[in-house]
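Give me the fold.
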Amino acid sequence: MVCMLQVDEAVKIYRDLARIPRVKLGRICSEEAPGHLQVYSEWLQRDLERNEQIKFARGHIVQLDVTIPTPPYELSNE
């Protein structure tokens, strides 16, 4: 019984770690307006239920001391 509990705990840890996204690509572009930067990043994340890698992108607009995040959007179907 103890061995089965250890296997269940190992599976739970694997699933938790597989959900952590990792950066695939990142870019910093200067906007036309002074004091503005655009940060673009692409991420990979394992989806165990769909048995595939999910690719998604995030963007942030940095204005002097304010950062405005954009919602993530999935790129997997491109």
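Residues 21-74 form one domain.
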